């Protein structure tokens, strides 16, 4: 497989994945861009992996988890104008609030925990594969998912009560 | 339920995903820029080789090996001072296209005096019997394959063992080294538009049907490699071949100086880019900057060619050995950077370059 073939089919799903990780299209673009530059420069090594797709997803996840806050937080915070790329929802008010709430709660989770949630509930990967991507034990994956879910549940209870 | 809400939230936010077209273009642009930077850096490595060939020195293995950051501009200033003191660069010409099963059939020690006067090209005969660290006594050219290993040869390791062997033999510290293959020499020669060589006698190739007449001629890449391989049929065999290698290196230097390549960074970079990443430089490529900054300091690019004084061994195994009368004096002069004295007293041992 060439880099071009890889990018043809995998760039869009990777970008979607990055949106779920970061919750922000601009950060997602930055994250994917940084990762894919390294992928292209080291393509021979990437292509040698059993599954280049999984290898790159792992690179991108690590990049996200290790990303230095300063580098992109600053950029995002300085970007003051409202984001036109965020679609407006036609739902009725209360539901829209709920929905935005769970999305914003996600952003308060530690990045590793958010990554596990995205990998399990968006990418639908088995725990073993999540563990491989994050470079940890399956047990660690399960405990960090349950911890993340517990945090979200606690928020729910707070809002509903 | 929270799991379902999560799935729904993710799915709902999918439309946030931006189009991939502009992103892909941005990635390609960034990659091109970084490759260019990398290439420029490799070019720097090749600069080391070329200038090594040309007899221009490099400062390396200074106590702190930290070079300028890799993003530093090749032509820009660096905080490290230009090297001072005498420098010795070891050039290995491999007998082949790569490290596989190769011996280093041409060993040339380039000595740059501290006063930056004429550089010296000192041939080390490949058939010289020497102690090779960890391998007993063998021919000098065996150090390369012993170091490189046989199953998956590594040129850098072959160079390293050769360097240690040469250091123990001569007592001279080797500051930098370059490993050249046939293809590197070919490319370098062709890119320079050929190299003028003046031969004292006719050489007839046993590999091709080429005949190199005595006198001056311009050699292309293929012819240059052919000439550098010839030793059968020469009056003094391997030693005549070493002399031809010195004449070639001197011609290459003259050619580069005549074309102004050495002082024109753009042309130098273009030339070196053509040689490519094929060659091995030691200790690392980061030294190239210092090297280039040495060029203006040289007072002369007309090298002095000579051979390490050796004699036929009386023993078996076809080894040469150091000339017990002349070699100690010569090596002392080399170590103490007094080769100008030595060559003045032994004019017959110096090549007639033109």
Automatic annotation (TrEMBL), chain A:
CDD domains in alphabetical order: Sigma70_r4
Domain RNA polymerase sigma-70 region residue range list: 13-72
Pfam families named in the record: Sigma70_r2 (PF04542), Sigma70_r4_2 (PF08281)
Superkingdom of origin: Bacteria
Sample GO molecular function, one term: sigma factor activity
Gene3D superfamilies, A to Z: 1.10.1740.10, Winged helix-like DNA-binding domain superfamily/Winged helix DNA-binding domain (1.10.10.10)
Gene Ontology biological process: DNA-templated transcription initiation
UniProt protein name: SigE family RNA polymerase sigma factor
Organism name: Micromonospora orduensis
From TrEMBL, chain B:
Residue ranges of coiled coil: none
InterPro entries, per database record: LytR/CpsA/Psr_CW_biosynth (IPR050922), LytR_CpsA_psr (IPR004474)
Assigned keywords, A-Z: Membrane, Transmembrane, Transmembrane helix
Keyword Phosphoprotein among record annotations: no
Keyword Manganese: no
Domain of life (superkingdom): Bacteria
Domain Cell envelope-related transcriptional attenuator as annotated: residue spans: 103-255
Transmembrane spans: 43-61
Stored PANTHER family: POLYISOPRENYL-TEICHOIC ACID--PEPTIDOGLYCAN TEICHOIC ACID TRANSFERASE TAGU
The family this protein is said to belong to: Belongs to the LytR/CpsA/Psr (LCP) family.
Record protein name field: LytR family transcriptional regulator
Organism the protein comes from: Micromonospora orduensis
